[in-house]
Each structure stands twice: as structure tokens, then as C-alpha cells.
Specification:
Low-confidence stretches: 311-340, 424-429
Shape: globular
Order of helices and strands: HHHHHHHHHHEEHHH
Mean pLDDT: 78
Distance between the termini: 54 Å
Largest sheet: 2 strands, antiparallel
Radius of gyration: 27 Å
Oligomer: single chain
Helix content: over 70%
Number of domains: 2
């Protein structure tokens, strides 16, 4: 920590010093968000490779003679390349100051994802063995992918810029929907390869279809016109051949011929690639949003540095803002010159309005994320205590909301409140 020479008072700090420091702090935060956006893009590429590897592994473990399984070695190579590419944006994050930009929670998610990825080599080795379990392999792959998606969700939840937060929510929604589509591909491929689909796999298939529809709704709610158009022109169009095979799977009457697994894998892969195209657009929009915000903040800093120049001494009082209670807040320039004082007050007012607008927009976006989290918790409660599947729990919540003429989030809050009360009474009884 620097100190002033003995006998000399410290340099007097000025209002403009903190105005510029405020803008520089904003720029530092936006630079971290840019690195976070690049990290999310790398996570997106890795998840896509892992999804294909999981699907081909599922086919291999269901029927090692199935032709699509021959593509697995190439898929492993692609995954390894995507994993190596992940380390560059990870290295660019500021690990020395995790509290900056609320990075501590994001770093925790990253740690969990990297720990899960360390198990990938062991998972691959287990799948080569004669006693490999297809269901266990599916769960392990899906856990790795879920942890990677958690990094994207945390980035959206902890983002301090509304436009970037919205872009992250859009990207997370399409990534989550694609993950459910990837699980559907893997389960369907295993069913066609084995010639049968058991009850658990059938229920999971229906859950995945319902989940994909909800992800698409979230995506379309937050996405801009260009991304909405990309969705409707690609995966949103539908494919009759895909729908026919999906109906066959849902009905449980799988054809005996071996061509069905190849047809299913090719069609679902084309559909996932189409979703991947939208995902690429969403990732590009995210990074463009980060760069635009950073460039705007840098331009604003340059303009403020020019405007906050020394001036002649003079003093005056200016009405700056009106407080929430209606009282006028007046600030005096004191010994500062009128031009400089006016510039400082103008900048303070502009930045205060900017921060207020950001706060309002962030409150709306985070409320959406919070509602999503609370509804998921309420569904988990119903699944645990009533033995429902995820879609059944969602339908039960929706039915309660309609019957009581309330919003879904209000029903979720009520259920969670009941759980809390019962938990407290249980503790008291002990």
C-alpha cells in the first residue's frame, strides 16, 4: 500500500477520480463477461461433442455389431479436441479476484464440471469392457453434460448486464433443449439397436419430449427476431420422418429390421445439428453483445476523460435528481469551476440513470430465473412424495394453478412453504 512522504498530506481525491474509476470498474467487469461468453461458447462445443459420443456409445453397448457404432472413434477425437479448446477461455478468467463480477459461484460450477470431466477416460475404458452397462454409461455421460450446462446457467444467473444476461438465458435454453434431444437420440438408438424399449426408457422418452417443448418456449420468449426466425426455419419446422419414428418408439412396437437404428440416428443427428446451428447463432449473438457493451463502455470512458478537464474556479448548485420520496437532491460544485462542475454532475446523473435502468432490467431477468428454479424445486417435491415423473409433476402443478386461478409460481411457492413448515415441525418433534 503506497504512502505519502513524511510531512506531506495525501493527494486530494476528486469527484472525477471516482467517476472514472466507476467506468473503469464497469469495463473490467465487461471484460470478464467477454471471457465468460467465450467460455460458454467453448462449453457449447464440448457438450455437442459429448452428446454425439454418448449416442454412439449407447448404440455400441446395445448392439456392438450395429454399423453406426463405427463412428465412435472419430467422435472421441472430436471430444478430445473440444476439451483441449476449453482450457484457453478458462485461463482467461480472473481467478485472482473471484469476487469481481460475482465469479466465485461460477468458479465453483467450473470446478464441478472439470472434476466430472476427469472421469471421462475411466468411463470410456469401462465401455470397452464386456460387462459394460448401457444405462450406467448413459447416466455418467449425462451427469458430465449436466455439470457443463450448470456453468452456463450460473453465468446467466450471475451476470450483471441485462442484455448479456438475456443472451445467456437464450443460449442456455437452446443448449438444454439440445441436451434433451441428445438424450432422446441415445435412448431411441439403443431401443432400435436392441429391438425393444423397456418401461423405464419409455417413460423417460416421454419426459424428454415434454422437456424439449418447454425449453423451446423459454427460448422463443427471450430470443430476438433473428434467432426466432432461425429456429422456425430450422428445428422448429418439424420433420415427418422423425415424427414417424418417434411415434414408433412411443408406441413400443419397434421394427425387426436393422435399418431403423441407422435411420433414427441419422434423422435425430440432423435435427440436433439444426439445433446446433441455432445454438451457434445464439453464441455468436452473446459474444457480439459482450463486445458491443465493452466497446460502448470504453467509448463512454474516453468521452468522460475529455469532458472532465480542469476549469476556472467558480461555484454553483445544481438540481441533480429527485429521490424516491420526492425530495430534491441538490449538489454544490464548491470551488470547482462551472464547466467542470457541470460536466461532473452531468456524468454522475447519466451513470445513476444507467445503473437504475440496469438494475430494473436485471430484476426482471433474475425473477424469471428464480421462478424457473422454484418451479423445478416444487416439481422435485411432487416427484419425491407422490412418485410422479417430471412431466406428471409439471402437469399436476399446472392443473392446480388452473383450478385455483393462480400462477404456476404461486402454486410452487405454496408447496415449498408447506414443505418448510413440515420440516420445521419435524425438527420440533425431535
Amino acid at each position: 500500500m503506497s504512502t505519502s512522504p513524511v510531512g506531506h498530506p495525501p493527494a486530494r481525491l476528486r469527484a472525477q477520480d471516482f467517476i472514472l474509476a466507476s467506468r473503469q470498474s464497469e469495463i473490467a467487469g465487461l471484460q470478464q463477461l467477454l471471457h465468460t461468453g467465450e467460455l460458454v461458447t467453448a462449453v457449447s462445443a464440448l457438450v455437442h461433442c459429448l452428446q454425439r459420443e454418448r449416442g454412439l456409445s449407447n448404440i455400441l453397448l446395445s448392439n456392438r455389431a450395429s454399423p453406426p457404432a463405427r463412428g465412435l472413434p472419430h467422435a472421441l477425437t472430436d471430444t478430445d479436441a473440444a476439451l483441449a479448446a476449453l482450457h484457453l477461455p478458462l485461463a482467461q478468467l480472473d481467478r485472482a479476484h473471484p469476487q469481481a463480477g460475482n465469479l466465485s459461484r461460477l468458479f465453483n460450477r467450473v470446478a464441478g464440471a472439470l472434476h466430472a470431466l476427469e472421469e471421462l477416460a475411466a468411463l470410456r475404458e469401462a465401455n470397452r469392457g464386456p460387462t459394460a452397462d448401457r444405462a450406467a454409461s448413459m447416466r455418467r455421460y449425462s451427469d458430465i453434460i449436466a455439470r457443463l450446462l450448470g456453468v452456463v446457467f450460473e453465468a446467466a444467473d450471475g451476470c450483471g448486464n441485462p442484455a448479456i444476461s438475456r443472451a445467456l438465458i437464450v443460449l442456455f435454453s437452446v443448449m438444454q433443449g439440445k441436451e434433451l434431444a441428445g438424450q432422446e437420440r441415445a435412448i431411441g438408438a439403443a431401443g432400435f439397436a436392441a429391438g425393444t424399449l423397456d418401461d423405464d426408457a419409455h417413460r423417460q422418452l416421454l419426459d424428454l419430449i415434454d422437456g424439449q417443448e418447454r425449453c423451446a418456449q423459454t427460448f422463443l420468449t427471450f430470443a430476438g427476431p433473428a434467432l426466432q426466425a432461425a429456429w422456425h426455419a430450422g428445428p422448429g419446422q418439424g420433420n415427418p420422418a422423425f415424427e414417424r419414428l418417434r411415434r414408433i418408439l412411443c408406441a413400443g412396437r419397434l421394427p425387426p429390421e436393422g435399418d431403423a437404428v441407422q435411420a433414427w440416428f441419422d434423422i435425430t443427428s440432423a435435427r440436433i445439428d439444426a439445433i446446433r446451428g441455432v445454438e451457434d447463432h445464439a453464441a455468436a449473438a452473446l459474444n457480439a453483445c459482450c463486445r458491443a457493451a465493452l466497446a460502448g463502455a470504453q467509448q463512454a470512458l474516453a468521452a468522460q476523460q475529455l469532458s472532465l478537464a480542469p476549469a476556472e474556479e467558480a461555484g454553483y448548485t445544481v438540481l441533480l435528481a429527485t429521490t424516491p420520496g420526492g425530495e430534491e437532491a441538490r449538489y454544490s460544485t464548491g470551488p470547482l469551476g462551472a464547466p467542470l462542475g457541470r460536466a461532473i454532475l452531468d456524468v454522475i446523473q447519466q451513470q445513476a440513470q444507467h445503473l437504475q435502468q440496469l438494475s430494473a432490467e436485471l430484476t426482471t431477468l433474475r425473477a424469471s430465473l428464480s421462478e424457473r428454479r422454484e418451479i423445478e424445486r416444487a416439481k422435485a417435491l411432487l416427484m419425491q412424495h407422490r412418485g410422479l415423473s417430471e412431466p406428471e409433476a409439471h402437469k399436476a402443478l399446472r392443473s392446480l394453478a388452473m383450478a385455483q386461478n393462480k400462477k404456476l409460481i404461486e402454486i410452487a411457492h405454496a408447496l415449498l412453504a408447506v414443505e418448510t413448515v413440515l420440516a420445521v415441525r419435524g425438527e420440533d418433534a425431535r
